[in-house]
Amino acid sequence: MKKIIPIIFVAILGVVGFKTYAYYNDTYKATTAYAVVPAEVPEKKEALDMSGKKIKESDGSLNYSYDYSFDFVKENGKRQTQTYSMTSPNPTPYQPGTIVRAEISNKRVVKGPYVTEEKNVPKDILEQLRK
Q1: Which of 93, 106, 112, 119 has the greatest number of beta carbons closer than 10 A?
Q2: What is the pLDDT of residues 88-124, one digit of tens each?
Q3: Using CA atoms, how far apart are residues 98 and 106, in angstroms rounded to an integer?
Q4: What are the distances in angstroms from CA 103 to CA 3, 27, 59, 110, 115?
Q5: What is an example of a Pfam family matching this protein (predicted)?
Q6: Cα gap 115→101, rounded to integer Å
Q7: 81-89: long-range contacts at Cβ-Cβ below 8 A with a sequence spacing of 24 or more?
Q8: Which whole number is the average pLDDT over 62-78?
Q9: Cα 41 from chain centroid?
């Protein structure tokens, strides 16, 4: 009986470790991806948190957001649609048709998106973006 408790503990630790690793890979492990900003600028609206409350700055001013849906092309050539909310007290929308670069995971935009020039985009990805 005393020998089975450490075996159970190691098994539980292994399962928890695997689940943690899988969550990290899906949520935070990012790859570089590029997208073209959609032709239609999304509607500017009051930013809401996950519970539906308005997001305010420390001085009490409201935040606004533009909610984008980008069709990213990763460096490995795979496509992934990802949503992104640009939120601040006075956000400036992206110019339609510009190219953005971001670090994205399977679940979210980790860094960016940042506007980039065509000359900074790999040629094979640029071809896919123009399709």
Answers
A1: 112
A2: 888 999 999 999 999 999 999 999 999 999 999 999 9
A3: 23
A4: 47, 12, 31, 5, 13
A5: DUF1093
A6: 6
A7: 82/33, 82/108, 82/109, 84/109, 84/113, 85/47, 87/47, 87/55, 87/63, 88/63, 88/64, 89/57, 89/61, 89/62, 89/63, 89/64
A8: 93
A9: 19
| Residue with token string 């670090």 | 103
* Placement of tokens 């020998």 in the chain: 3
